[in-house]
Amino acid sequence: MSITIRIATRDDITHIAQWNSAMAWETERKVLEPAVITRGVTAVFDEPRRGFYLVAERAGEPAGCLLITYEWSDWRAGDFWWIQSVYVVESARREGVFRQLYEDAKQRAKQSGAVGLRLYVETENERAQRTYTGLGMKRCHYFMYEAEF
After folding, report:
1. Residue 113, CA distances (Å) to 69, 80, 87, 106, 109 in order
2. Which of 7, 4, 83, 77 is nearest to 48 (CA)?
3. How many CA atoms lie within 13 Å of 49's alpha carbon, on the beta-carbon side?
4. At what angle do helices 13-28 and 34-46 cross, to 10 degrees?
5. If we measure between CA atoms, which residue out of 44, 34, 26, 31 comes closest to residue 93?
6. Dist CA 118 CA 136 (whole Å)
7. Got the DSSP string for 98-136?
8. Residues whose CB falls within 8 Å of the CB of residue 7, separated by 6 or more in sequence, listed in order
9. pTM as predicted
10. Which residues does residue 5 pair with via DSSP β-bridges, in sequence order?
11. Alpha-carbon span 30 to 39, nearest angstrom
12. Coil, helix or strand at residue 46
């Protein structure tokens, strides 16, 4: 089945919010507040400096998405593009949807002058780690820390 990738529009907000909620549950058993996640997704469309979503369609139906955000690197004098909020609907998994999303993001990043792509992955998600390695990404030597407010 053919997979096409496009920039998300406001018409995709409901799907993206639902997919983010599903991903949070699947990966962390975390329940997201629907109003908050919808507000968070909408904010990306309201402020383009925050990033953008790509949506994958399979046979004309939405099948997954990812979010691109930016991190300035003073060491490289350019932006890293962060891949976040990756989700592929269950019926489309293992069919190349993420690969197409990744390749599209990589091409756009190169064309925009970005210095690289980054993402983070759950430490236990070995399947995703194998996927990222298979796409040519390398595991970094950094640990991620956070302080939530």
Report:
1. 14, 10, 26, 11, 6
2. 7
3. 1
4. 130
5. 26
6. 12
7. HHHHHHHHHHHHHHHT--EEEE---TT-HHHHHHHHHTT
8. 52, 53, 54, 55
9. 0.89
10. 56
11. 17
12. helix
Could you tell me the two tokens for 63?
């099948």
Residues 6+ apart with CB under 8 A from 1: 58, 59, 95
Could you give the angle at the alpha carbon of 78 between the alpha carbons of 73 and 80, nearest 5°? Answer: 65
Domains of the chain: 3-134 (3.40.630.30)
Whole-number Å distance between alpha carbons of 113 and 78: 7
Q: What tokens were used for 38?
A: 């919808």
Q: 64: closest CA among 112, 131, 18?
A: 18
Segments in the chain below pLDDT 50: none
